[in-house]
Amino acid sequence: MTKLSPPSQEDIAKLQFIFDCYGAYEHHWPKDKRDWINALLEQSIEAQNIRTTALEMDQLLDLSPAEPNTTHLLNTILQ
Questions:
Q1: Cα separation of 35 and 39, whole Å?
Q2: Predicted TM-score of the model (pTM)
Q3: pLDDT tens, 31-45?
């Protein structure tokens, strides 16, 4: 088994940028970057930790409603 070198800080910054833009779900990532991202995730604990943080944010966003409930606002305006 060969030892893999740690990713560069530039690679980590690019990965963080992708997760910031597209989130942690693989199907949202640019298709041309998926193999690179998965390879980085396989070799780097730091990359895995970044994805875990992004995944936590995605899961919180998934729980929030897509559209705000405006009933209260409308009732207040119409009074």
A1: 6
A2: 0.74
A3: 999 999 999 999 999
